[in-house]
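Hello Y.,

Per our agreement to keep a running log of every chain we model this quarter, I'm adding this entry. I've kept the format consistent with earlier entries: sequence first, then predicted structure.
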Amino acid sequence: MYYWNKKVQDNFLNYFPNVNQLSIRHHFKTLVDSITATLHHVISLRQLEKLVIECGDFPMEDLIKLLRFTSDKNEIFQYIIRTWLVLDEIPFIIYLFPKLLYLKTGINRKELRQILRLLLSKTHNRTRNLFYLHIRSVPKVHLKEAKVLIESKNLLNNCSIKYINDGLH
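Predicted structure for the entry above:
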């Protein structure tokens, strides 16, 4: 299900009962209930396998509330897209999703080194399943910095980094 509208009507009742993927493009406001309660009326949150949040202003608090209604979030959520993550949110993402395979996000360029250290650390066991990391909207000059960081620090050996279409992969 792809949700793009900014205002959600609260009169649906499991209108899409078989949905297992949810994309949210805007941090929408509901008329009465919370975002989670409204979505719970439209879809069965327990069935979600893929969650895509394509808005930078979607609060981490709302994400956590949304995840409370899903089934075993450690097993199910393997793919997350967020438009923007800040350094303080990375530990929450790592803790909530230890089986995370794919992470696509934008970050504050000043936090690139710290975020790469956190996500690619050999000693950080919770990110061992991370297969693909895409950091969007990063100038190409940061590619060299990222390569040097990966080679010089105690970071994963079996990773490569490339600059493709305005982002690090």
